[in-house]
Design goal:
Shape of chain A: globular
Strand content of chain A: 35-45%
Structural class of chain A: alpha+beta
Pfam families (chain B): PmbA_TldD_3rd
Oligomer: heterodimer
GO molecular function, one term (chain B): metallopeptidase activity
Protein name (chain B): Peptidase
InterPro entries (chain B): Metalloprtase-TldD/E_C (IPR045569), TldD/PmbA_N (IPR035068), TldD/PmbA_sf (IPR036059)
Radius of gyration of chain B: 24 Å
Strand content of chain B: 35-45%
Number of helices of chain B: 9
GO biological process, one term (chain B): proteolysis
Number of strands of chain B: 22
Strand order of the largest sheet of chain B: 3-2-1-4-5-6
Structural class of chain B: alpha+beta
Number of domains of chain B: 2
Number of domains of chain A: 2
């Protein structure tokens, strides 16, 4: 992958970051902090919506600020602001230390951070070919309007295109000597088509399957996903969906396409193996996990076909970085190996509290205003090296469903009971697709589901996708995580009818 | 270098503007929060926010930029130039029209921004410390979160509007667990935390923990449920934030009827429920003028500064209004009812307290909150989610035990159509989608057949 020129952030790249960070770290030290980190961050975003070829909404935003996190007497304090002068960030450090003293009576055990290597000063940037922020507005809007046109020309009654582009620039320094500068860019185009029956007022909708990606504008023009091809096929698929029959609820064999399975992995494996959730630290909000710390190395999570890896290094994946927001280098490690739970995910403080030696490097803060919290890395299901293609998996099913594209998703606090829908459910009869069926959800519980995994597809079926808007912590923070997976065959999964609520 | 204050920023931006019309919005605020788990503090934060947003209109085309951080004179001019550059390249905006004629300027326009007292949460530290000790004596641990935010919004337009809104809001959530494992939850909403009693909330939690002592297993099914205000808020927030008139008239929402019509005028609730907004509602105050840093389906940048007043979305169980921009109201020939950022659901006067509804229940389930709510079907507004932190079995007017959690599948519209009783409306906050509409007041609803489609042991 080539990067013609690194992206520049005028007004951010020229900040006297060393002076600012030093002012914060010095003031924190004077005010009694035993540890401090300072994070200057800019988030540049573009959000655009085009409805039926006409612009509905477009906004470019830039948010710049600094957060200072300190440990005073083993107690966290954090202050964030927008005054980017040595005096301003010094005042934030003092505020953070004062807050830590104020809340000291609530501390409990002192915070323990894992000992981590201190890298030499580094500069990391995610790769792209064409800077999406440099594309002229007119060209951008014209592309989205053209996409709406493809759906309308094919027979959709309404079409809506939505584009989000993000660039996050960070300068991180801490009192242990880390000095890290990094920048990453990612985007997510989505196009929705609606088919409306003017006679009876009913309607059906469908969304593109193209995933978000840490890429540049080239992603919208043919690199990494065939948008034009997908949009050309969508109207007919939408018409078929609108006219599709329903099915009897009950248990069905499912071949789940990677465009749908990634979200199930996110919800049932990704969140369940976050150590802060496992230890009850998110119990009152994002939730806990059915997985207990003592389950690592013991729990049979799924069938032997299930191998899941965590990483922050996969190219173009949404959680890929050089270093996390604790300054810990990005890595790769197994979560589930041949069905056995072998790993979890954490940051310095969560690992420290659990008595572990090292962090997996999963700290992340949404903006300068947010405290870093443990967030999911890229969590991906491995393909079988010589595994079958999707058609072959479908060929192994006598009576089942081929599930394509994520849609509605809900799971309980402990990551056990779930319900997922899809953009499309295709009926499989005797190993062949025989047309779509509608108003379906697949449901179940995490371990039963993964233990029903009979086969995963080969590398030729593997697709990198991801969640751009995952929420956790209070105040709520949004983070992005990548998920790659092959097509996979699950046996006898409960399927319900979403119109009648019948569970079969 | 001193950076200009909000009012000066707006004048500088409007002076620099070369477009046909310009909107300048400055938002300034502070958020403070405490978070604890297992009776231990896990986060304490204090964050300033300052944001300048500029909307430029050039020949009916729109450019919108937003810059957050301290903005000096040069950055103000850059933001205006940037918005105009985007506008010149944009296709014509379908909702383009002159900005609203301004009314009187806000009387406090020139006042400095009043930051909240730095110690707004300090009093809570002592209360929590006492609370942690009380919990420990009873073999419990506390989890929770307290947040206070204050925001001042300044809006200036080239049409002459100079409008300002000062708002603040806080909430506290408290979860207790004892050795038995099933957590219980309660919450409070407040402006400034002077009226929050952790001990009072703990009394409520202790009562709920006593209910948890007798565990009852029930199969999934349709049960009579008492849906409490926070859970009703989650359902109503969804019903409100998807109530755009234009989308309904296009035929693509649950408010659509055949032939490009909407369901306005239809009966929407089985009992005479009124769903309304009012920027001046006591305890729920929100901006009395429209603010849009960018357009969306429910808001147009061309409506910035539009005066907002009391609006009835449902009246006595009948759908009366959907959310309009001036563009959609003119196009559809309907009265203009713009989005207002608070929401009140109420029944006829005399609604009972929650305890009264429990006392009138022969057999049913008292819910605590709903969680992980997601849309299943746009056409019916069907949602799914799970119950959280307490499902209590009520028999002959009394709570007799606690049940595990359930997954539910229901539509907010279908739910109110089947509701048979409404309690007294109280200020609350949706637990899952609280940020969608921050200022809400909701009643408890009795739903005779709430679909609980799966049981789960998850807590």
């Amino acid at each position: 992958m080539t990067t013609p020129a690194p992206a520049v952030e005028p007004g951010f790249d020229t900040l006297p970051v060393d002076d600012l960070a030093d002012a914060a770290l010095r003031q924190a030290h004077r005010a009694g902090a035993t540890y401090a980190d300072v994070r200057l961050r800019r988030v540049r975003a573009l959000r655009e919506r085009v409805r039926d070829g006409r612009p509905e909404s477009s906004q470019e935003s830039v948010e710049t600020g600094v957060g200072v996190r300190v440990l005073v007497d083993g107690t966290w304090g954090f202050a964030a602001g927008v005054e980017l002068s040595p005096r301003g960030v010094g005042a934030l450090a003092a505020r953070a230390c004062a807050l830590a003293r104020t809340v000291r009576p609530l501390r409990g055990e002192p915070v323990r951070l894992t000992a981590e290597p201190v890298p030499a000063p580094v500069d990391w940037q995610s790769p792209f070919e064409v800077d999406p922020f440099e594309v002229p507005t007119a060209e951008r809007t014209a592309l989205l309007a053209g996409w709406c046109g493809l759906l309308r020309d094919g027979g959709a009654h309404l079409a809506e295109a939505y584009l989000q582009v993000f660039r996050e620039s960070t300068v991180y320094h801490d009192s242990e000597g880390r000095r890290i500068r990094q920048r990453r860019t990612w985007l997510h185009p989505m196009v929705f088509g609606f088919r409306i029956d003017a006679g009876d007022g009913t309607f059906e909708a469908m969304r593109t399957l193209g995933p978000p990606a840490a890429r540049g504008w080239e992603y919208l023009t043919g690199t990494g996903w065939d948008w034009a091809g997908e949009l050309a096929r969508m109207p007919e698929l939408l018409a078929e969906k609108a006219a599709a029959p329903r099915i009897e609820p009950g248990r069905y064999d499912l071949v789940i396409d990677p465009t749908n399975l990634w979200l199930t992995i996110h919800e049932t494996v990704g969140h369940a193996t976050e150590l802060d959730r496992m230890r009850g630290r998110e119990a009152a909000f994002a939730g806990s996990s059915f997985v207990r710390p003592q389950d690592v190395g013991v729990l049979r999570y799924g069938s032997p076909q299930m191998t899941v890896v965590a990483d922050r290094t996969t190219p173009h994946a949404l959680a890929t970085v050089g270093y996390d927001d604790d300054g810990v280098a990005a890595g790769s490690w197994p979560l589930v190996t041949e069905g056995l739970l072998v790993g979890v995910q954490h940051d310095r403080q969560t690992a420290g509290a659990a008595g572990l030696d090292r962090s997996t490097g999963c700290a992340y803060a949404e903006s300068y205003r947010h405290l870093p919290v443990p967030r999911m890395p890229n969590v991906s299901l491995c393909p079988a090296p010589d595994g079958p293609d999707t058609d072959e998996l479908i060929g192994r099913v006598r009576d089942g469903l081929y599930v394509v594209g994520d849609n509605s998703f809900s799971i309980d606090m402990a990551r056990v009971n779930f319900q997922f829908t899809a953009q499309r459910f295709h009926r499989i009869r005797n190993g062949r697709l025989v047309g779509q069926v509608r108003d379906i959800a697949y449901t179940g519980t995490t371990l039963d589901f993964w233990r029903s995994l009979e086969a995963v597809g080969g590398p030729q079926t593997w697709l990198l996708s991801g969640a751009g808007q995952c929420g956790k912590a209070q105040p709520l923070q949004i983070a992005a995580a990548g998920h790659g997976c092959p097509s996979a065959l699950f046996r006898a999964v409960p399927v319900t009818d979403t119109r009648t609520g019948a569970t079969g | 270098m001193n950076t200009p204050g909000p009012q000066e920023t707006i004048e500088l931006a409007l002076t620099a503007a070369r477009g046909d019309a310009t909107v300048v919005i400055v938002e300034s605020g502070v958020d403070r929060y405490l978070r604890w788990a297992d009776s231990t503090l896990v986060a304490a934060g204090d964050a300033d926010e300052y944001r300048l947003s500029v909307v430029s209109v050039v020949g009916g085309r729109v450019g919108a930029v937003s810059v957050s951080g301290r903005v000096g004179r040069a950055e103000i001019v850059d933001a205006v130039d940037g918005a105009e550059a985007v506008a010149r390249q944009a296709p014509p905006a379908p909702d383009a029209r002159p900005l609203p004629e301004p009314g009187a300027a806000s009387p406090c326009w020139d006042d400095p921004v009043r930051p909240p007292a730095p110690g707004v949460l300090a009093g809570l530290v002592e209360q929590l410390s006492t609370g942690f000790a009380r919990a420990a004596r009873h073999g419990q641990v506390l989890h929770g979160y307290a947040e206070h935010g204050s925001r001042t919004t300044f809006l200036g337009t080239s049409a002459g509007a100079r409008l300002r809104h000062d708002g603040s809001a806080g909430h506290l959530e408290l979860t207790a667990r004892d050795g038995r494992g099933a957590p219980v939850w309660t919450s409070a909403v407040t402006d400034d935390f002077t009226d929050v009693s952790v001990a009072g909330l703990q009394d409520d939690l202790d009562r709920r923990l006593r209910w948890e002592r007798r565990r009852v297993d029930l199969p999934p099914g349709r049960y009579e449920c008492l849906v409490p205000p926070s859970a009703v808020a989650d359902m109503m927030n969804y019903a409100y934030t998807t109530a755009g008139a234009a989308a309904a008239a296009q035929g693509r929402t649950a408010y659509s009827r055949a032939g490009g019509r909407t369901r306005i005028g239809e009966t929407i609730a089985g009992i005479p429920l009124t769903l309304r907004s009012d920027p001046t509602a006591e305890g729920l105050r929100c901006a009395p003028f429209l603010v849009a840093t960018a357009s969306s389906g429910a808001r147009s940048v061309f409506d910035n500064g539009l005066a907002l007043g009391p609006t009835r979305w449902w009246e006595q169980g009948r759908l009366r209004s959907l959310v309009h921009t001036r563009h959609s109201a003119e196009e559809l020939g309907m009265p203009l009812t713009p989005l207002v950022e608070n929401l009140i659901l109420e029944g006829p006067p005399g609604g009972g307290a929650e305890a009264d509804l429990v006392a009138r229940t022969r057999r049913g389930l008292l819910l605590t909150s709903l969680w992980y709510i997601r849309e299943v079907d746009l056409a019916t507004m069907a949602l799914t989610g799970v119950t959280r932190d307490g499902v209590y079995l009520v028999e002959d007017g009394e709570v007799v035990g606690a049940v595990h959690n359930f997954r539910f599948n229901d539509s907010p519209l279908a739910m109110v159509m089947r509701a048979t009783e409404v309690g007294r409306t109280v200020p609350t906050r949706a637990r899952d989608w609280g940020d969608a509409v921050a200022h809400v007041a909701m009643p408890m609803l009795r739903v005779p057949d709430f679909p609980l489609t799966a049981a789960t042991g998850a807590v």
